[in-house]
Amino acid sequence: MEPVIFQRTLDACCRRIGSWRVPPNWSAAQWSEEVVAVAQLAACEAASDFNSSHGVTFGSFVYYRVMARALTRYRQEWVYALHCFPTAPDDGPENESCQSLMFSRLVSGLEGDCEVVRDSVALLPEAQGQLLRQLFWEERTESEISRELGISQQAVSKRKHSALRLLAELVQRQPSSPGKFPCAVVKPWCHRNSLN
Fold first, then answer.
1. Mean pLDDT of 171-195
2. Of residues 106 and 71, which shows the higher confidence score?
3. Which helix (H) or strand (E) holds 145?
4. Most exposed among 42, 81, 89, 101, judged by the fewest C-beta atoms under 10 Å?
């Protein structure tokens, strides 16, 4: 084993893995700790399995083994999150469920105070506000909206993601009503809230 290459490779893997989106059922700190542990274990196993006669460099072997293990763990967490956290029904692809999860988590932290969300949606640029109203109040799918606008479903998804990030920032800036749950706190679970 080559300690310098081993550590450099492990650091490169952890940097790359650190750029992945945190699964919704984890805090950023807990996920970081989990994924570093997975990477370290995979790196140690790769170092013990390495055989130079296969024509692969030590660094490459460790890198791909660590990334494969981390990606498997990452996928397991997202599958768990998508199956265990109920979201708004939609008939689109799984990434729509992820975005619905983000919206549900945002709303669930407000303890039913949907006026804050409605006020924040009103502050969004018109196109973004209209998109969120169509998706979450009117329960339309990304596919329906993309056909109506004459753009791809991916473009609608990107616009929705951007709008949800801006909405989350606006909601956090809204003053909480007295006696209401603070807007900046988001529960670790989500449920579907009625926005009526």
1. 42
2. 71
3. helix 142-149
4. 89
Domains and CATH numbers, the chain: 3-84 (no CATH), 94-173 (1.10.10.10)
Return d(Cα 174, Cα 82) in angstroms, integer.
29
- Tell me what percent of the residues of the chain surpass a pLDDT of 90: 7
- Residue 35 · residue 70 · CB < 8 Å: yes
Euclidean distance between CA atoms 167 and 158, whole angstroms: 14
Residue 38 pLDDT > 50, yes or no? Answer: yes
Contact in structure between 109 and 187 (CB atoms under 8 Å): yes
Type of residue found at 158: K
- By the 8 A CB rule, do 84 and 26 touch? no
Would you call 105 helix, strand, or coil by DSSP? helix
Q: Could you tell me which residue, 177 or 155, shows the higher pLDDT?
A: 155
